[in-house]
Design goal:
The protein has a domain of about 45 residues. By secondary structure, it is mostly helical. Helices cover about 35% and strands about 0% of the residues. It is built from four helices and no strands. This is Putative aconitase. It comes from Escherichia coli.
Length: about 80
């Protein structure tokens, strides 16, 4: 991860409006117990019960961030990435 700059682009990948969200809803405990020492593997289960598309959207956003930080902007995001 690069240094934080004066300007950043953020994308909200999930929005949960419930008053109460338990830790089991963030990362389910049962099926993920074997991943407790593997944070990258554990991250694959983030919000899997509440928002199954979250991990995919987050990965796509991370890739966009990598291309933007390398001086490239992709697709419709070109206007947002422009300096």
């Amino acid at each position: 991860m690069g240094a934080l700059t004066d300007n950043i682009v953020l994308k909200v990948c999930s929005k949960i409006l419930d008053e109460v969200t338990t830790t089991d809803e963030l990362i389910p405990s049962g099926e993920t117990s074997s991943y407790r020492s593997n944070p990258i593997g554990l991250a694959e289960f983030t919000l899997s019960r509440r928002d199954p598309g979250y991990v995919g959207r987050s990965k796509a956003t991370a890739e966009l961030g990598k291309s933007a930080s390398g001086g490239e902007c992709q697709r419709a995001d070109r206007g947002v990435c422009a300096h």
